[in-house]
Amino acid sequence: xxxxxxxxxxxxxxxxxxGWLGRFIVYGLLGWCxxxxxxxxxxxxxxxxxxxxxxxxxxxxxxxxxxxxxLGERLxxxxxxxxxxxxxxxxxxxxxxxxxxxxxxxxLVAAIGRCPWDYSASPWNVNGLIRLDYAPxxxxxxxxYEPMGSxxxxxxxxxxxxxxxxxxxxxxxxxxxxxxxASLYRG
Length: 187
Known about the structure:
With 187 residues, the chain is mainly alpha-helical. The protein is built from 5 helices and 4 strands. The protein has one domain (16-157). Helix content is 56%, strand content 4%. A hairpin with a 3-residue loop joins strand 2 and strand 3 (130-131). The longest helix is centred in the N-terminal third of the chain and has 27 residues, at 20-46.
């Protein structure tokens, strides 16, 4: 993005929005950050963690978040066109989060024999793949997705502008001769 500190964005030649692959990468990175924040705070709140706030995630989560949030772009647009309220769209987003987490976990179980997250110890689990008591957190993700997705879709990548060549410094006439430079040092 370009601009001199104001809120307007001037699009220069070569500026372009992130494509689907760029957004996939950004969404995956954001998902990792969300997971680390969530797990560190949740572990602290439940007594499992400490004030170091060590969060964690899995490498598998990058493509899951990336694909899930790309799906969220399409879904949000459709739900907005239908005229649903933001709270209702967040509720649909919560259901989609549960579905993505469940399907991704089931695919991982089928592919590698286990799911990195295991919720089977929770009384609110469904096949150890999702926790229904996480509904408020997933609703919040659905609520926060819209401004976050809007921001990611506004990111532009610009072609690098060449640095202007510095103007040659022309010494003042005072420096033209050795005698003139020496005269500066004489009081």
